[in-house]
Design goal:
It comes from Carya illinoinensis (Pecan). This is Costars domain-containing protein. Belongs to the costars family. The chain is of the alpha+beta class. The protein has a single domain, classed as Costar domain (Arc Repressor Mutant, subunit A, Orthogonal Bundle), CATH 1.10.10.1540. It has helices at residues 3-17, 30-35, 37-42, 46-55, 82-97, and strands at 19-20, 26-29, 59-60, 75-78. A hairpin with a 5-residue loop joins strand 1 and strand 2. Helix 1 (3-17) crosses helix 4 (46-55).
Length: 98
Amino acid sequence: MNVEEEVERLKEEIKRLGKVQDDGSYKVTFGILFNDDRCANIFEALVGTLRAAKKRKVLTYDGELLLQGVHDNVEIILKPTPAAVAAATVATDAAVGS
């Protein structure tokens, strides 16, 4: 699996494990990702895949290097897709207009 494929798989796993936010993004903690059996089987180097996704501006989190235990509560935020942003904007506009 190449880096692009791993980043796509990571996005899927964050959506599976995380909670969707009002803006269409997904939020999950590093500890949840790291300790998930499915993620452990998919990603040989989860931290490396996270760094690659952050470099590609697919997601964001505080810090550079995440370590198990120390950074379990660090929030990883999968940025919303343009379609999700548009849907959130429409929903917000509809709520404001009513």
